[in-house]
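Can't paste images in this forum, so I'm doing it all in text. The chain is below; anyone willing to post the predicted structure tokens underneath?
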Amino acid sequence: NKRVVAQDISTYKKVDGLNSNTAYSIMQDRKGLIWVGTDAGAARYDGYKFTHYTIEDGLSDNDVFQIQQDYKGRLWFLTYSGKPAIYENGHILNAATTL
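Text version of the structure:
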């Protein structure tokens, strides 16, 4: 016998500070921050505001299809270009030159 628990769900759009109205992936990291992969880069939501990350910040492409966290706490961004990027210690690094 399973129960459904009611949850409050918030919707965010570009007018609310998200970098795009198109979201490909959403995940919550170990610190509780929400990460959104969009067609305009990645966005991090801390409960108050969005911080945007793009190719100017180190992403290999602005189309971010998937975000995953590894056992070390690093975030991996899979982009349209197929070249992964890693978020670690507050910076995005190109995975090909980091590993």
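The chain has a mean pLDDT of 90. The helical segments are 95-98.
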